[in-house]
Amino acid sequence: MPSVLVEQCTQLLVEQKLKIAFVESATAGRLAAEFSLTQQAGQCLLGSLVCYDACIKQNLLKVPKALIDQFSPESAEVTQLITQNLKQFFDTDIRVGVTGLASSGGSETPQKPVGTMFFHMIIREQVYTHREVFQGDPEEIVLQAIDRIAQLIMQYVNQQSTNK
Question: What backbone torsions phi and psi does residue 114 show, to the nearest 5 degrees?
């Protein structure tokens, strides 16, 4: 069952007649799955690409190996590029990319602990980036990230509507 925030976000997207697509690493499809469980998903959700492993980021989403080697697969830089390159697969108003560390064994450091998530959003061609750190087990981290993404989408869509 999707969270209240995901339900509210979907409702706003439908009201604004906006389409959305995701490119997911750490959330591994859970972001799109949560949105798909809302009553109105068919009116706004186009789909999602899961790029959990770096080879998918490189081969499908055209992220240079050098960029991954320099910054890691779980980084703001890689998240930005996978989100930009999602455009080749989806003609949509909103593209959201997410990478991060929901569990240990990745590129964690003292500056980038487990729970660090990177979001890159392109909403009507306006760019928004976020780095958040969540606590909990892997599922809790992913669910917190999904709710935060829904919050941010609503915030930015509402800001853009107000500024028209």
Answer: -55, 135
